Amino acid sequence: MTDATLTIPEDVYEAIRRHGERTYPHECCGVLLGRTDENGNAVETAVEAGNTRTDSAHNRYNIAPQELIRIQRHGRERGLDIVGFYHSHPDHPAQWSKTDFEEAHWIGCSYVITSVEQGAAKITNSFLLNGTTEEDKRFEDQRVVVFVRAAESTRC
Amino acid sequence: MKIFIPTPLRAYTGKQDAVEVGGATIQEALSGLTTQYPDLRKQLFTDEGRLRSFVNVYLNDEDIRYLDAKEQTKVSDKDSLCIIPSIAGGY
Predict the structure, then answer these.
(1) C-beta atoms of B6 and A72 within 8 A
(2) How many C-beta atoms surround the C-beta of residue A1 within 10 A?
(3) Does position A130 have pLDDT exceeding 80, yes or no?
(4) A83: nearest CB among B7, B43, B55
(5) How far is A125 from chain B (nearest CA, A)?
(6) CA distance B65 to B23
(7) Distance from C-alpha of B76 to C-alpha of B30, rounded to nearest angstrom
(8) Dmax of chain A from CA atoms?
(9) Closest CA to A75 of B77, B86, B78, B4
(10) How far apart are CA B54 and CA B3, in angstroms?
């Protein structure tokens, strides 16, 4: 069973929160690329995606499958997998909703939600979609570990 | 042809992110995939054998639901299929 931990570099964590502030009062959305191991989902980078729900962008998001395929291909070329998704809840708590659950189909992936209040990112939570099928899937609270990347060594 | 497998379904393909299958049509290719990996069937199809509503399948860059011949569309070894579950939500 996957350990319920999401590790994410601080710069990526801040980037997804800033994304939610930029799109406020609309929802932002994007894809988390990284690796999954026995310790959970480890994010390497985030890719911003367009929200196709322009009819109700303040409380709905949808990522076009074509964009998802492009992002998956982009990750694959770099040895990275899709390990999660993120979106914002403008003026709404950072908790998954009935719609979030019904529309969640990537079992094993992390669903990160940031509440954005009056344009400012507040709480960021992650929920692991666990289970084996649509019938027994469930969201589990996931510990978020934010870390500062080690500076790359400089070679002369 | 090659079928790309998304992260959540790799538990059923021995962790492979792409699988080579034979078949002259999309339906035959998908059938080849679920014959090789039977546990994938219920992940991809309803009990009536239809693709689940949230499962998108793309032939190269085209959604197979919008192809004239849909799953009967002919394919060659140079084509690829990509299975991509939908991602959406909100409150």
Answers:
(1) yes
(2) 5
(3) yes
(4) B7
(5) 14
(6) 19
(7) 13
(8) 56
(9) B4
(10) 18
Q: Find chain B residues with C-beta within 8 A of A53's C-beta.
A: 88, 90
Q: Would an 8 Å CB–CB cutoff place A71 in contact with chain B? A: no
Distance CA B89, CA A22 (A): 19
Name the helix (H) or strand (E) containing B81.
strand B80-85
ipTM value of the model? 0.94
Neighbours of A129 (CB within 10 A): 24
pTM above 0.90, yes or no: yes
Nearest to A100 among B56, B86, B90 (CB): B90
In one-letter notation, the amino acid at residue B37 is Y
> Quick one: pLDDT at residue A121?
98
Binary contact (B52, A133; C-beta < 8 A): no
Residue spans of beta strands (DSSP E) within chain A: 5-9, 29-37, 40-49, 60-63, 81-90, 110-117, 120-130, 138-147
Q: Where are the alpha helices (DSSP H) in chain A?
A: 10-23, 65-77, 98-102
Predicted confidence (pLDDT) at residue A152 exceeds the cutoff of 80: no
Q: What is the gyration radius of the CA atoms in chain A, in angstroms?
A: 15
**CB contact (8 A) between residue B6 and residue A106:** yes
Minimal CA–CA distance to A9: which of A28, A32, A31? Answer: A32
Eight-state DSSP code of residue B5: -
CB distance from B51 to chain A under 8 Å? no
Distance CA A6, CA A43 (A): 7
- Chain A residues whose CB is inside 8 A of the B4 CB are 72
Tokens (6 digits) for A91: 């003026």
Residue with token string 């939610």: A20
